[in-house]
Write a sequence for this structure.
């Protein structure tokens, strides 16, 4: 249960956990479970609310063993299993100088992210689901389908944001693009009246810039710690290996010296000090 990101999900205790490693195994499980037993499906388990990828007194199907990956001969697509986390995908693709629009944290799971739509830092490439070209999916009947823009078209569209409501996806093929490096990291600011005002104004100015650089992005989170109080956690990101780019100098984290944990590759995103 510790594999879940949120305490709410960790608190649920299923009666049984299945760890299938193939579409045929999931097909057998669904034929047995459908209509007779409540069940949940887990990829990375990074959604906060209880019941999103876990269940109390039912069956949780954990897809962690569906962790395959392969690049097409022309390197234009990569096929990945929903049990992978984005850090694993980014590490594999980096060896080829490639990337895909994936999670903004290396710990996010592939399955839930792509089936939920998927916001990435690569704005020019749209949502993560916009880059999916094929799914392998197991229906409630146990049938295994290969779903594309030309086969089972309605289901292809429904899976781009439909989560696990239309079947259990066992493999996803995504378009790749060339990437030679990034720049970014994490910055942390303890909230004080002047800091809070500066942070919110800087974020507003960055987001409202009429000459917006689509390589630049900032994710701002406002968190609470019992020991520190309110903390601003910012993740500045630039989709090129350019240190302290001009587009980020007016962001909430403008100084390279203030970045406590640096990221020079996608697999390093969302690292915290000491990790």
């Amino acid at each position: 249960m510790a594999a879940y990101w949120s305490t709410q999900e960790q608190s649920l205790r299923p009666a049984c956990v299945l760890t299938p490693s193939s579409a045929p195994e999931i097909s057998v499980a669904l034929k047995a479970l459908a209509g007779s037993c409540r069940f949940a499906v887990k990829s990375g388990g990074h959604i906060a609310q209880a019941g999103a990828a876990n269940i109390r007194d039912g069956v949780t199907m954990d897809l962690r063993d569906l962790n395959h990956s392969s690049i097409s001969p022309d390197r234009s697509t990569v096929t990945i299993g929903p049990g992978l986390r984005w850090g694993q995908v980014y590490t594999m693709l980096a060896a080829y100088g490639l990337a895909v629009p994936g999670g903004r944290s290396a710990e996010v799971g592939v399955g839930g992210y792509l089936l939920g739509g998927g916001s990435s830092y690569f704005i020019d490439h749209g949502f993560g689901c916009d880059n999916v070209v094929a799914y392998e999916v197991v229906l409630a009947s146990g049938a295994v389908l290969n779903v594309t823009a030309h086969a089972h078209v309605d289901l292809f569209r429904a899976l781009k944001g439909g989560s696990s409501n239309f079947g259990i996806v066992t493999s996803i093929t995504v378009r790749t693009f060339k990437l030679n490096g990034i720049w970014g990291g994490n910055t942390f600011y303890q909230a004080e009246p002047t800091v809070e005002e500066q942070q919110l104004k800087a974020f507003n100015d960055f987001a409202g810039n009429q000459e917006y650089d689509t390589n630049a992005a900032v994710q701002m989170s406002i968190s609470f710690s019992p020991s520190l109080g309110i903390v601003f956690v910012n993740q500045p990101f630039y989709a090129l290996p350019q240190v302290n780019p001009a587009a980020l100098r007016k962001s909430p984290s403008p100084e390279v010296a203030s970045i406590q944990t640096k990221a020079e590759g996608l697999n390093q995103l969302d690292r915290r000090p000491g990790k």
